[in-house]
Amino acid sequence: MVGRTAVVSKTPFRLTFAGGGTDLPAFYREHGPGACVAGAMDKGIYVIVVENFNADEIRVSYRVTEDAKHSVDQVEHGPIREAMRMLRIPSGVQVITATQMPSRGTGIGSSSSCTVGALNALHVWKGERVGPYQLAREAVQIERGVLREPGGIQDQYCAAYGGLNLIEVARDGTVTVHSLNIDHDGLELLNQQLMIFFTGAERRSADVHSKQIAEIDDHLDDYRKMRSLALETAKALEKLDFVEVGHLMDDNWRLKKSLSNSISNTSIDEAYETAKQSGALGGKLLGAGGGGFLFFLVPRERQRDVRRSLEAKGLVAKSARFEIAGSTIVHEE
Question: DSSP for 181-242?
Answer without folding.
Answer: ---HHHHHHHHTTEEEEE-S----HHHHHHHHHHTGGGGHHHHHHHHHHHHHHHHHHHTT-H
